[in-house]
Write a structure and sequence with these properties.
single chain; alpha/beta; TIM Barrel; 2 domains; seven-stranded parallel beta sheet; elongated
């Protein structure tokens, strides 16, 4: 999703919190005209793919305290694009005391989708020292009005304000999770020229967080929000020309790459799980509780709906080598930071088989399995299409066109008559796999591999939009654990699979109790330590 920001610095805001200077933070000197808003939208739309979800956000002021006629003019200017389906919705930021049923009704009617509340802190001492008069009950009431109006809720918090401690910031985050916001933004307090905070700093009455402490606090609070099901969409101030100008930032943890540094600190030492963003919430929550850092792949507009968020359709790994579809650049950056050699692969250009399966090869130990013809009775696969597989020291791969960087890997390639290879295989260890595909089963068990596959019955794995999913798509392997999205009790060969896995010294982890569900696999990566 892309957000087009429209800055309305201090507009509508009757408050002057000691840390705030929206003109410098946003880089905007005045509120925009209607023509300027349209110009910003048009300029941004030219650079954004038509398949991308786009929203417009009014930031930097208290939108619902603007004169009502100006609110309407601003929203109507954007609603033209909403009506023409160029813009999916509108976001605003406002003060909790400025939320009313009337203002939310007006906003919703004109394309509104999310309201961000500037909370900053829920600690009484911090609020008093920053000239903010507010309590949790006020925020709770505002959140209720927002949600009852059919709008999503977002929250903003600020760390390291006068009187703040890490424990107070943690308490604020945990309290806000009770309101079930959809998104959160985390800002470490920065001392800006001309603000009340700047005055306190010059008098020696305020000491901002160091960069190191701010990174640690932000990583901790971000982790708490995300474990609570809240998506953190921003960490740190967005760099602007004014903020980067000499003498504007007097002190504090301002850095153009602050968010990336906080994310790296958050993930440090944690294994990474790459998942479909639509994974059942219970399964996602369990992974977080087990200490995994979750990264969701973006939904790919060229893939078929049921699999457009499946990691195994967009990313291939072989030891420390990773080949990724260009839309996964942010995930690749994270993996590079953790010691992986990431290669940008070819774009997926069509949902039609076999153009959709170029990354769907399966590596086992030092082997890679990829697609070779026929169907295995699962998803509808055109006959007479060559496909492939690989061995511990191999890759099971497609016999036709496969991603060129995978094809160039120096390893043993095992070709099988199955296009969706990775989806079809549960990798237990370098020699043992579970599959419902007879072709893969036969190929893996021959030769000098000393391999032992387990063949199970086809089906019994759910994938909305298709007759059935694949067992590999409902699983993931990491160290001594084999994960399943769902319970093996709901598969007629569940007991056999459990015994097969446990006999190899591995543990079965069921992330949820319902049917097995194909989520495109869970791809695990170890963190740098």
């Amino acid at each position: 999703m892309k957000i087009i920001p429209i800055f309305i610095p201090h507009a509508g805001c009757p408050y002057r919190c000691i840390y705030c200077d929206q003109h410098r933070i946003s880089g905007a000197a005045k509120i925009p005209s209607i023509e300027e808003i349209k110009s910003v939208i048009e300029r941004n739309l030219k650079t954004i793919s038509k398949t991308e979800r786009v929203e417009v956000a009014f930031f930097g002021g208290t939108f619902t305290l603007l004169p009502e006629d100006l609110q309407k003019k601003y929203l109507d200017a954007v609603y033209l694009y909403v009506r023409n389906k160029k813009i999916a919705g509108v976001r605003i930021s406002t003060h909790p005391e400025a939320v009313t049923e009337k203002s939310m009704k007006l906003f919703k009617k004109r394309g509104g989708c999310l309201v961000e509340l500037g909370v900053q802190s829920l600690d009484k001492e911090v609020l008093k020292k920053t000239n903010r008069v507010m309590d949790f009950n006020t925020i709770k009431i505002a959140a209720g009005v927002i949600k009852n109006s059919g709008l999503d809720l977002g929250v903003q918090v600020m760390l390291g304000l006068p009187g703040d401690t890490l424990q107070k910031s943690i308490k604020t985050a945990r309290k806000l999770i009770e309101l079930k916001p959809k998104t959160a933004r985390i800002y470490p307090a920065v001392v800006l020229k001309g603000t009340g905070l700047g005055g306190l700093f010059k008098k020696g009455k305020y000491k901002p967080l160091s960069l190191e402490d701010a990174i640690e606090w932000s990583a901790c609070v971000c982790d708490i929000f995300e474990r609570g099901g809240v998506k953190v969409i921003r960490i740190g101030l967005h760099p602007s020309k004014d903020l980067n100008s000499e003498g504007v930032v007097l002190a504090g943890p301002y850095h153009p790459r602050f968010g990336q540094m906080a994310r790296l600190a958050q993930t440090w030492g944690k294994p990474i799980a790459v998942i479909d963003p639509r994974m059942p919430p219970m399964a996602k929550k369990r992974l977080k509780q087990m200490g995994y850092y979750i990264r969701e792949v973006p939904l790919h507009p060229k893939l078929a709906g049921p699999v457009k968020g499946h990691p195994d359709m967009m990313l291939f790994s072989y030891g420390k080598k990773v080949i990724y579809e260009p839309r996964l650049e942010k995930i690749a950056r994270l993996l590079r930071d953790n010691g992986y050699e990431c290669t940008r692969g070819e774009k997926i250009k069509s949902y039609k088989y076999p153009k959709d399966i170029i990354y769907n090869a399966c590596s086992i130990g030092k082997s890679i399995h990829s697609p070779a013809t026929e169907t295995n009775g699962g998803l509808s696969i055109p006959p007479k299409e060559p496909r492939a597989l690989a061995h511990a020291g191999s890759i099971i791969r497609y016999a036709g066109k496969i991603e060129k960087n995978i094809e160039n890997l120096k390893t043993e390639f095992i070709r099988v008559k199955q296009g969706y290879v990775k989806c079809s295989v549960v990798v237990v260890d370098g020699k043992h796999i579970i599959t419902s595909d007879k072709g893969i089963y036969d190929k893996w068990g021959v030769g000098d591999r000393h391999a032992c596959p387990l063949l199970i019955r086809q089906g019994y794995v759910k994938l909305s939009g298709y007759k059935t999913g694949f067992i590999g798509g409902a699983s993931g392997s990491h160290k001594d654990k084999i994960f399943f999205t769902g319970s093996l009790k709901n598969h007629p060969d569940g007991r056999l699979m459990r015994e097969f896995i446990e006999k190899r010294g591995k543990k079965v982890v069921e992330l949820s109790s319902g049917e097995l569900y194909d989520v495109g696999g869970i791809l695990f990566f170890d963190a740098n330590t």
